[in-house]
Every structure is written in C-alpha cells, then in structure tokens.
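During the second half of the funding period, the structural biology subgroup turned its attention to how the target accommodates small molecules. The most pressing case was glutamine, which had performed well in the primary screen but for which no bound structure existed. We therefore specified the complex as follows and requested a full 3D prediction, including the ligand pose.
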Amino acid sequence: MSALESARETGARLTAATPLNATLHWSQELLDAEAARVDAMRSPGALGGMPIALKDNIVTVEQPTTCGSRILEGYVSPFTATAVNRLREAGAMVAAKTNMDEFAMGSSTEHSAFGRVHHPLDPARVPGGSSGGSAALVATGVVPAALGSETGGSVRQPASFCGVVGLKPSYGRVSRFGLVAFGSSLDCISVFSRSVEDAGRVLSAMSGHDPLDSTTVARRPMPVPAPLADLRGLRIGLPREYYPADLDAGVAAALRRTREAIEQIGGEICEVSLPHSPYAVPTYYIVAPAEAAANLARYDGVRYGPRNTGAGGDIHALYRTTRGEGFGAEVRRRILVGTYVLSAGYYDAYYLKAQQVRALIAEDFRQVFASGVDLLLTPTTPTPAFKAGEKTEDPVSMYLADIFVSAISLAGLPAVSLPVGRSEGLPVGAQLIAPYFEDQRLVAAAAAIERVVSADAEVR
Ligand code: GLN
C-alpha cells in the first residue's frame, strides 16, 4: 500500500472516530502532504509510512498546538519538535493532534478546555489522562502508534485504562525540544502502541542526544530492541508497597496471572520493598506544580495565543484578564499550589522537603536494582477506567489515580504498561520498570511477556 492510500484510510478512520472527541486538529490535506513526503523518500525508513498521532502539547509548524487550553487557542509554533522531525526522517506520517487534559494536568482528560475524551469501550467512562486522546486513537485502531507525554504517568495510566502498550523512556532519552513544558525535571515524550515491538521501534527512532535539549543524555540512539525468547536468568521483583490488601480484585487477579506467565517462561519472582514509594503522590504534587507555576508564567497574553486587555488598560489588567480567562480550574489550582510551595517561608517546609523525599524514592529503586533485581512488576493503576464525573469534584481522589506511576517519574526510570487482561470487560495494565537507561532490557522483556499473557481474557 502506498503512503497516500494509507493516509486516505487513516483519514476515514479519524472521521469514524469523531464521537470519541480524541482529536483536536487534523486534516486530510495535511495527511496527504505527509504521505507525499513519505512516498518520495528513497527508502521507506524504519517506520515505513506509519501514521502517528501527536498529543497536542508536541509542536509542529503545520498545525496549531493548544495543550487543551483556551490560552493557546489558535497558537501555531514557529518550529517543530525534535522527536517529530526524527520520526518523519524514519518514515512516519503525522496523522493528528490529540485531545488532552489542559497542559497535561489530570488523569482523565476531563480537564481539557475542549471537552473530555470518551473511553473506547464505554463512553460513560474516561480513557485516563492526560494523554487520553492518543490512548483512545490507538485502542480503536485509528493509528498504530501515538505520542503522549509523561510528567507523572500520563501515558502509562491511559494505556492501562484503554488496553494498549504505554512506554515511558528514561528521562533524558528523548529530546524535550518542542514538548510544551509542564514539569521540566520530569517531562518525557512517551509512546502508545498496540504492540511492544512498535513501541520499541518508535522510541528507537526518536531517541538520542539533541543539542537543542541540554537534558538529553549524550549517548548513541537506542537500537531497536530484539524481543527475548524467554525470561531465564532474570529476577523480577514485586515491591510490596504496590500490592496493597485493598487492591481492586480484577487488578489483583490480572497481576497474579502475569506473575504466573513470567514464571512459566523462566523468570524468577521475588518480593522486594520500596519503602518511600508511598510518599510519591504527595511529593509529585509539590514538585510538579512548583515547576508548572514557573513554566506557565510565560502565558501572559503578550507572546502567545489570545489576549484580553481587560479593564483599566494597564499591563497588570492584561495579565490578570488573559490568564483568568485562559486557564481552567485545575491549571489555576496547580499555579496556586506551586507558587505557595516556592514562596519564601514555605519553600523549606514544602519544596525543599519534597526534593529530599524525591532523592529517597530514587535511592530505593537504585538499591533494589543493585541487589540483583533486573526488573520490577506492579499494577499500573489501582482500578480499571473510572466513570466520568466520579473524581472531578475531589482533586485528591484524581491525584490518587497516579499512585503506582508517580515514583517512577520522580526517579526518572523507564517503565511500560502492558495490557494483561480484562476485569468485567475493562482493560487492566501491568507495569514493568527497569533501571535507569535500561530501556532496551525493558522493551525486550516486555515483548516476551506480551507473547504469553492474553490481553483480552477476562480475569475475574
Ligand atoms: N496525572 C498527573 C498530573 O495530573 C500526571 C500528568 C502527566 O504525567 N502529564 O499531574
């Protein structure tokens, strides 16, 4: 099939998927232009014309980038993200920009200024977030892969809810140039796909040092990982803090099955402890808002998006009115929390303390991996996809949806969520975690597990 034919089919699938509200911008004209570029390439590249959707906080010059926010409505970036340039060089076609929680703050897409995304299997439920639009498009087969962003679980959590693969690389593996900043010490462009193999191919194509992002690690790009035939010789740790007694019965059953499958292919299971992980959610919800408050100061009505000069005619009225109208409630809450924890008098009690706890959380992982454990296995989420509206009135209950994913982000580690079964019809994900920069080991082992666990089997 030519790229043009594939672009037309992708367009038809995007049209059919309209009721999900998963996309914010796409056009057949742009898809056709992507296809023409791919068809003109001398070789098909590592991605051979793969249509890939982008979360709407990853910039391209051809389409607007809104981050799901009114404050960036109509904004078009003057440059394209490094990750997107690299995917295009590898033969990918950009298919669409996807809906998301405003500025990637949320776990359900209910904080998008442009309406929530519907769960592909049950429209009354959420697809997870913040990269819920990308997850829903991959789950429904509209595109084989999509990019999301992770600050604290925003790819693994929706991947788990939607029953697809969600791969977060090590911090510094993929350039953040062109990813709109939320929490700069945490942000990672990450991948959704239907197979582990595709996730590895996409990550490999976009990985590597970028002179435009000083936090990318100066190592060679990651080769495409070859799947392991079995897990013989590998020790897989189950951190006890991630298996609470009150874990959802369906999630617990799916994890039990995954553990048995790992043992069947020769993996050795052992129990370990990550004693500081229970502090990850409160730590994350200090560090991430602090960085967000600083990063979002740039949206002042002067340089980006719509402007409202307000009453009074001075510069403060312009800032106040533009930001007051442009930011939604959750983003305002984060800016308030972030400003508070950074303010003189509270800095030591909150921000500094959170940085210290972050170091302890990361040290736990280092020690467990140094003790001879190769990978860790945990649930990705405490429950399957929840109902829309269930957590919108109580921000803390929404934050707790991240309970098994935040520590990994604070530690900068690579992790993948794999679909490992269904509970009452809803997908359940298992999370595999590797040591820093062992992304290749992670993907190779995940591919072996994927072969022996049935993602569609009812587990209860
Ligand atoms: N749910 C988390 C938050 O709201 C994670 C967001 C993310 O990873 N972008 O901050």
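Two results from this model are relevant to the next phase. The mean pLDDT is 97. The chain is about 35% helix and 15% strand.
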